[in-house]
Amino acid sequence: MNQTVWKKRYSFYLSLLVLLVALGLLFWLEVNKSNYGMAVSVIQKSLVFSVVAVSMNLLNGFTGMFSLGQAGFMAIGAYTTAILTIPLSRVDGVYYMKGVAPWLKGVKTTLSVLPEPLLIVFALLIGGMIAGIFAFFIGIPVLRLKSDYLAIATLGFSEIVRAVISSPQLDRVTNGSYGLKNIPGFGVTQAGGVLPVGAGSLLIPFFFALTTIAFIVLVINSSYGRAFKAIREDEVAAEAMGINLLKHKQLAFVISSVITAMAGGMLAMYMRSIEARAFSVTLTYDILLIVVIGGLGSVSGSVLGAFVVTFAKDWFLRFFDSPLVIGGFQVPFLRMGFRMVVFSILLMIVVLFYRRGLMGSSEFSWKGIFRWIRRKKEGVETTKGEMIDYPDPPPAKPAPLIPDPPGAPQEGGRDER
Amino acid sequence: MSFVTFIQHCLTGVSLGGAYALIAIGYSMVYGILLLINFAHADIFMMAGYFMIFSVSSFPWQISIPIVILGTVVLGVLIEKAAYMPLRSAPRMSIMISAIGVSYLLQNLATYLFSALPQAYPAIPPLKRQIRIGEVSASLVTFLTPVLTIILVFLLIFLLRKTKIGMAMRAVSKDYDTSKLMGIKINSIISLTFVIGSALAAVGSILYFTDRMSVTPFSGVLPGLKCFVAAVLGGIGSVPGAVIGGFLIGLSETFLVALGYSTFSDAFTFLLLILILLFRPTGLMGEDLQDKV
Amino acid sequence: MQFGGVVALNNLTMRIDPGEIVALIGPNGAGKTTAFNAITGVYPPTNGFVELEGKIIQQGFPKGKMKRLYAGENAGKYTKSLSLTPDRITKKGVARTFQNIRLFKNLTVFENVLIAHHTNMKAGVFQAAFGMNRKEEEDMRKRSWELLEMVDLSDVGLEKADNLPYGKQRHLEIARALATKPRLLLLDEPAAGMNPQETQEMGDFIRDIRERFSLTILIIEHHMNLVMDISDRIYVLDFGRQIAEGTPAEIQKNPEVIAAYLGVEQ
To answer: In this structure, which of A53, A126, A397, C63 has its CB flanked by the most CB atoms within 10 Å?
Structure first.
């Protein structure tokens, strides 16, 4: 029997090929932008959400920390980027109610010497840095909490961020609840005639997504990534093997929040105008559902999930929202809002019946596909690792339903179940 | 602030606190038994608001109130059976994700069915009647709420302490696995928990929305988060704790708004949450824990 | 070591010399695993201290009113308490296995051992991510495979740890603990659930690793044959109190031990 062996270079060349094809496709779409506006927009959004999904997966799927603070970090990144990149000429128009704070205007004037692309990158990085600093300090107390409590603490943090951003006190910086507009988009605006206006609107977010996700993958594949997985599997054992829990959880938390914030900045550029209301808990839920659909613990799953969900929500399912008449007969149910109901139901089906999502916790691999094809062809039994289920974090012990009278034996309680 | 105004605010605060308490109990009980943060509880509360709007258009309010309570209970139990029961043996995060999914579904369903625009909440004549005690005046419902809350809580505690079913509930909450082995019908107990929680949420919604003008699909979000904080504050899993937490949150929110810090009143609640989690995560009524390895 | 009103360990004093194999035995619930937990920093002792090679690694003393009642001979030592987290204690050279096996279930056998090398790795997160610590990685991987060879698990290296049979899981836990380069190894019931032949092999294995890695070993066990066979000295606990100490021969003849634990002559 002659069995072909899968060499590592096959995977490398195949990936390279796919990358080139993708780049070519994006380039072609860019050039033909006007005809495919919808596709461009959906792809942009998918790219941004795939970054957020991967960074949320790093925290929730790989390190096992149930954090619901993503929206807050995205808000930090979005607002920082917006504040720094709104063109100086438009600033007064944006802050029409109370006027922009003088020191901010001064900062922007200083920064305006930078060409726009550089300014944008700078703004994204600053946003990430600020988020990272917050994450670091918040992490110190909060990361010691048991998993359930971590979820609500991060949720609370996210809401506090939102409240602070929209508070009247910060009106002159964040424009309070009025929102910010005139945020530059992805395409270049001033290119000195070399490139057409709007060039790069797909390639730039693609490049951003590629670099940030690649960084996260590198971390996951390093020894630190393994340490994260150990923490997810069994905290007590990980600690006994010399892994400092606080330090590593902080590491995961900070990395995740920095990248989430940068993606928030990208989201601001996608939406062109933002308001604090958009960064509510619902946004975090959206991302969580993407991660679950893609598969907790799978980077390729998160990317896939982001694309599938965004395409479905913003494209395929659109037809559910408009009334449809077939042969003089009005199809029931179809009207505004039905799309989201369908989406929610599909989500529940995934959560209930396909808990592991599209990819489970395996990654996409050429080798895997090769083996699968071969198995189908020859009926060869290969030992494939099982789909991994998400392990149980230790439960937080709840208070008694009603307190026992003093003197009652304190016993039992729930062991890990 | 004059004394009268102070009393007025106390009254409002206690009334709001009562509604919060009733909702917070739902969170606490479900967590105590299933170790689940029922994110959908807030949206059940919201749906109860809509149930009232639609029921009142067909029936007089005297009949509507029981209909609403019944409808909410049915909804709560349905959710438990469809979305939580199948996942009982799954890792705990799955069931929390399911709760989030249900919350999402309810909000989208409400938007689809009733549109995102605010719908006017019906005025129930006797409840809206203005009562005046000395210098302080408010609608009857404001006076009624804390009283009703206390009564219901006493009934609940009586149920838990003195009845066999109550004992069963406490047993399940203390040690799930052993309770199963002892022959306690787990499914019935869990359903009962949701029945009680949903019924109280329905009552809470009537008391809450009567003084507000309208309901939107997202009316439950902020109160839900606050009531959850209230439950944690009191010690999640504990009924008296949830009640104390509810009143505390209601009072602090009212006074913050009165003192002019309304934008921060929500942020304050979450700050309170974080402080509690840091310094006494088991809440006011909780016990100190130590794990055995 | 006191938990609320329960005194789990009451005046346990142990001394272990380098290179020894010391056993801690006693009926169930006597407090043996609690002792392990106190030593490795899972909980700091309520009253007492742990010293490793001359340096204190854990220290706890009663405060306030409790001082007078419980301080006993430590009465003079009211300086600070010291409570190192388990990972710091592991870094100082103390490793352990668990009574109820705590492997990283969903990770592969190989990864379980590889992860235990992380604590001694010098590279920071950026260096590791960008591959600048290639030599370190290679060394860690090589050493992991060697450890797996030693416990006869190299052929199942890529299997999910959870899929291993029970006996092999225990071996894996030991290999994993060894990967942290300990000087003191705490084994919590390594032979639990094994048949006599496996137990015998485990005994040989323990002696073998003591030689090979210059270890000092503290072992909790219920298999008396194993205990008597490999231990240099034995401590006996009953209800948290230390009731005997000595060589295997002495312990076997000790009437209190026989009464509390060994029961009818084997």
So the answer is: A53
